[in-house]
Amino acid sequence: MAGQAYRQEQEITLTNLQTITPNDLSILLQKSIGNSPSPNPSTDTKPLTITDTLTTSTTAAAAGESNTSSKPKDLAIIDVRDSDHIGGHIKTSRHVPSATLDARMPELVRELQDVPVVVFHCALSQQRGPKAALRYLREQRRRLVGGQHEDGRDGAAKQKVLVLQGGFQEWQEL
User: Fold this and answer.
1) Which of 58-62, 114-118, 148-152 has the lowest mean pLDDT?
2) Is 68 among the residues known to form the active site?
3) What is the pTM of this model?
């Protein structure tokens, strides 16, 4: 029976990755950075506008940094676009070009191990974003030894790893 559970865990593929819609990510991001909407239920589900969530500083984009003063502790957005990153990005996102993923993946898994939700995206989230999420999950699993992380922490706490549906292009349409 344990072998069967192990086999089920190994079957992470591109086709069974979980996704999140741009609207749901916008709401999650809004809650994460403390911009809680008013108690009125009709405005609680209103997504952030593109101006609220998009930073277009080419200096920050070129440096791979977001222009934000408050990064959420319970959400990480990983932008794996390469040169197409210049021109805008999701506020609080972290730019990790797909060309550097293999070298940076162990570091990324270590840095984000305590973040409950990690969202990957590229321009359309058809290739680079899903592949990056898959690599991340595989590296995360590789680091688990006997149900614990390499540093001895319990590995039972599950992190949600998601792909932004439609990628940055659909995000811009909000």
Assistant:
1) 58-62
2) no
3) 0.74
